[in-house]
């Protein structure tokens, strides 16, 4: 019920702001539908065949990451930052799905093989030219392996949430000029001056109308910072700043609530803590990528995030490696999770 309320609120608020500001809410509505459909599908398929479903999601994500012209730039071409972010996000989701499959199987050899395959996505990221994807996938692999020693899933999930908030805060601070000169200069060189200018423009739009924003899909009407720039200005390359600019701080609060809801259902999940924390790490990596890129503007990414969240919160119908009593909440230990 909480998820329905949060996602419904995101859809409803986009329609309200679109009506008030002559906006174009189709992108927001499609993203909400993609997450909801993916989550429902993941819950169903993940309950029936968690290992096979996770492997299928990983295979699909890898195929899209390395073969789709919409998400992977061709050699020697300049691609929009959003496309590169989508490639990285798909690699991360594939890594998380393979690691979840590894923890969902009881047999030792298949588990080792699946962990090795998940580590192989780091190599795929390097070969695909996605440094961010390789680095984020490596982080997910390390978190997945480290989850074997986790004792409290609540604390780990809270840490992931704080990490996402810190990355988002750094982006806002950079756009607002609040960071010290040294770190600000380094981040601007890494992210590009043009992107930081777009972020600054998004902050200005959010401040000009903090309640309703400029309207969904209308950043491009106000966001051009350089007519000669080869990078499209339709989006500010930050989900946080785009929502704040186009839907005000109420829209931003709803986006935050959607991420918080995912962490909440992971905490309540009846799946093993290893599966929960692995999925949480992958979804958090996607959230961090979305704070500095347009990853969530790609339907494949939002569907994949929903699928992984659904798989990690499904109620397994078959046997699964038992959870550590100290790591799982009491209602999960009592068999009332989900």
UniProtKB/TrEMBL annotation:
Keyword Transmembrane: yes
Keywords in alphabetical order: Ligase, Membrane, Transmembrane, Transmembrane helix
Chief site of localization: membrane
Gene Ontology molecular-function annotations: ligase activity
Keyword ATP-binding attributed: no
Sequence segments annotated as region (Disordered): 319-338
Protein name: O-antigen ligase family protein
Species assigned in the record: Streptomyces tabacisoli
């Amino acid at each position: 019920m909480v998820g329905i309320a949060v996602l419904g609120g995101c859809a409803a608020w986009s329609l309200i702001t679109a009506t008030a500001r002559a906006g174009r809410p189709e992108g927001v509505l499609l993203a909400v539908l993609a997450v909801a459909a993916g989550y429902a599908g993941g819950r169903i398929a993940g309950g029936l065949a968690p290992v096979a479903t996770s492997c299928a999601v990983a295979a699909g994500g890898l195929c899209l990451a390395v073969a789709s012209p919409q998400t992977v730039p061709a050699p020697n071409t300049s691609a929009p930052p959003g496309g590169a972010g989508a490639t990285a996000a798909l690699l991360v989701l594939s890594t998380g799905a393979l690691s979840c499959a590894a923890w969902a199987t009881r047999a030792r050899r298949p588990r080792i093989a699946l962990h090795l395959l998940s580590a192989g996505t780091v190599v795929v990221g390097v070969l695909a030219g996605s440094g961010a994807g390789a680095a984020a996938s490596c982080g997910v692999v390390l978190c997945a392996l480290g989850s074997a020693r986790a004792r409290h899933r609540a604390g780990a999930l809270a840490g992931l949430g704080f990490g996402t908030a810190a990355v988002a805060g750094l982006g806002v601070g950079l756009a607002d000029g609040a960071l010290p000169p040294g770190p600000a200069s380094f981040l601007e060189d890494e992210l590009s001056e043009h992107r930081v200018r777009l972020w600054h423009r998004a902050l200005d739009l959010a401040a000009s109308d903090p309640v309703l924003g400029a309207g969904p899909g209308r950043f491009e009407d106000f966001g051009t910072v350089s007519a000669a720039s080869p990078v499209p200005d339709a989006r500010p390359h930050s989900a946080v700043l785009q929502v704040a600019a186009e839907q005000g701080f109420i829209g931003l609060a709803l986006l935050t609530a959607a991420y918080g809801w995912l962490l909440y259902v992971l905490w309540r999940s009846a799946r093993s803590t290893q599966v929960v924390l692995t999925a949480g790490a992958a979804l958090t990596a996607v959230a961090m990528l979305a704070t500095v890129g347009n990853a969530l503007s790609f339907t494949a990414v939002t569907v994949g995030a929903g699928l992984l969240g659904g798989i990690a919160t499904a109620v397994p119908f078959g046997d699964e490696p038992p959870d550590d009593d100290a790591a799982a909440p009491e209602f999960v230990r009592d068999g009332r999770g989900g």
